[in-house]
User: Which sequence fits this backbone?
């Protein structure tokens, strides 16, 4: 196997993910509609309830819609990571995960390729959202659209890798609903996506530290600052570290000799 | 004891293979060998350990005891070479229902690193052979159960494997689809010198020209050409031999 073989394999996996995304219409539209519902309804409702003071990277008072836009971008990626994880659980129940795993390429490469494929889809979704959000006057500086790309890739990798880990530990589709409740909601709400952390600190110091420890907060902040051409080394470090950790866990989870995959074969 | 690596021409060589899920022993000291051109039926009731054996041979799980080699490539030490030589049809359907027949096969080709042009040629050839070339752009969801099985067979052959593994490939198929599948695979054995391991619980899928491995409760009870296995069990037919062997094992 030479690099060109690896490239072909990666290309095939990305293409399949993209085809699945576009051909499953429900998934396609819900991915776009979900953040827009938040923006149009939630943000409109809270527009007058929450006052946001001037906090970096913003240089002026901003409407609430502008504040939650980076959080919604991260939410798109969180859902996409979980969706990809859901499709892997589904794949495994349906058996098509097996066709991936019996490929002659190393398993770490196959999982990484699967992860990259899901990131490509999530980044495209994020840009479509940014395009639509422009009409809500969420208009970061033009260069921000470019500088946010590495942030979106990095946060997409982290959330996709988290999805991979979860998919290797979930045995059946039914358990996935639990993951939605115990992973997606806590991650999203205990973060800086919907409210600035200084406000959280005012109400509960414990919650503040939970939010600080939540990698989703750092994904959101990474995107928020990148959208204004700024870099937050702490958030970048946390997101990169979490990506690495999740990826190691995922490769372990899918290892035929060590992971849980081997131990639960008794059900077949 | 770990056997020393040896150069062998066997398409599939399994020796001393045991596997347990917790306290349940799924396979116990299983050993057999397939040569190129062999059509071998792995015969066993549901729960005999056929699917576990397939999962070990295809490296979905690792075996802690025993050795599996594909054309001399140890599945643990050289998984890439071993998996590249193998085509697999799993018991469960594994096609992507929302994609077209061709998209499914192209995805598989890329998982084996095939170049675009070569992949297209191979996909056309294999679809032609299973009589589904005109359905290449149909969504898999629109195909019948028999057609889906044929697509899975075509897919398993796209990368030109020399060893073909099929796990209960005829389950749920009508008589005609079943006949087609068996005839097509037997033709592959003869024309391409392909080694085939065909797992089934249907005794009539092993005719007198086939080899058979009788697997029962994780153990190989007997193996060899069908007439020899029948004769050793003192039976006139494989069915009677199977009943005698599994009856004695109970």
Assistant:
């Amino acid at each position: 196997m030479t690099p060109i073989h690896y490239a072909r394999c990666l290309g095939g996996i990305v293409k399949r993910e993209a085809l699945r995304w576009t051909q499953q219409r429900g998934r396609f539209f819900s991915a776009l509609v979900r953040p827009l519902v938040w923006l149009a309804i939630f943000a409109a409702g809270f527009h007058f309830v929450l006052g946001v003071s001037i906090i970096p990277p913003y240089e002026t008072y901003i409407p609430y819609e502008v504040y939650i836009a980076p959080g919604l971008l991260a939410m798109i990626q969180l859902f996409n990571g979980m969706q990809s994880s859901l499709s892997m659980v589904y794949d495994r129940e349906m058996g098509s995960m097996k066709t991936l795993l019996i490929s002659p390429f190393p398993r770490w490469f196959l999982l990484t390729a699967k992860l990259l494929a899901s990131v490509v889809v999530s980044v495209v979704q994020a840009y479509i959202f940014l395009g639509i959000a422009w009409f809500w006057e969420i208009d970061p500086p033009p260069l921000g659209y470019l500088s946010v790309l590495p942030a979106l890739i990095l946060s997409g990798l982290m959330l996709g890798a988290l999805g991979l880990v979860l998919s290797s530990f979930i045995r059946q589709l039914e358990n996935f609903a639990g993951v939605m409740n115990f992973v997606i909601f806590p991650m999203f709400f205990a973060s800086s996506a919907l409210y600035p952390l200084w406000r959280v600190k005012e109400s509960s110091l414990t919650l503040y530290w939970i939010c600080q420890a939540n990698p989703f907060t750092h994904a959101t902040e990474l995107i928020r600052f990148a959208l204004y051409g700024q870099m937050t080394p702490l958030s970048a470090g946390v997101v990169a570290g979490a990506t690495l950790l999740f990826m190691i866990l995922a490769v372990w989870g899918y290892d035929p000799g060590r992971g849980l995959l081997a131990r639960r074969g008794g059900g077949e | 004891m770990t056997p020393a690596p040896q150069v062998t021409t066997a398409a599939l060589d399994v020796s001393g293979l045991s596997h347990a899920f917790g306290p349940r022993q799924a396979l116990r000291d299983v050993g057999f060998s397939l040569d190129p051109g062999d059509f071998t039926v792995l015969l066993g009731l549901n729960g005999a350990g056929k699917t576990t054996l397939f999962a070990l041979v295809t490296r979905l799980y690792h075996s802690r005891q025993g050795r599996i080699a594909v054309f001399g490539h140890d599945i643990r030490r050289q998984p890439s070479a071993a998996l590249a030589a193998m085509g697999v049809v799993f018991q469960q359907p594994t096609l992507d229902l929302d994609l077209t027949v061709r998209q499914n096969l192209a995805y598989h080709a890329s998982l084996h690193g095939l170049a675009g042009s070569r992949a297209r040629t191979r996909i056309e050839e294999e679809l032609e052979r299973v009589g589904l070339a005109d359905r290449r752009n149909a969504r898999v969801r629109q195909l019948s159960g028999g057609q889906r099985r044929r697509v899975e067979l075509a897919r398993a052959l796209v990368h030109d494997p020399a060893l073909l593994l099929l796990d209960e490939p005829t389950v749920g198929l009508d008589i005609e689809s079943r006949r087609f599948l068996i005839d097509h695979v037997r033709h592959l054995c003869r024309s391409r010198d392909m080694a085939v391991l065909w797992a089934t619980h249907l005794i009539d899928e092993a005719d007198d020209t086939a080899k058979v491995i009788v697997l029962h409760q994780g153990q190989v009870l007997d193996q060899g050409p069908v007439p020899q296995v029948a004769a050793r069990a003192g039976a006139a037919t494989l069915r009677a031999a199977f009943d005698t062997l599994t009856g004695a094992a109970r």
User: Anything to note?
Assistant: Chain B has a mean pLDDT of 91. Helices of chain B lie at 50-57, 79-84, 101-111, 116-129, 145-157, 175-192, 226-232, 238-249. Chain B is about 35% helix and 25% strand. The interface with chain A takes residues 21-22, 24, 26, 51-52, 55, 58-62, 64, 79-84, 86, 88, 90-96, 98-99, 103, 106-116, 155 of chain B (CB under 8 Å).
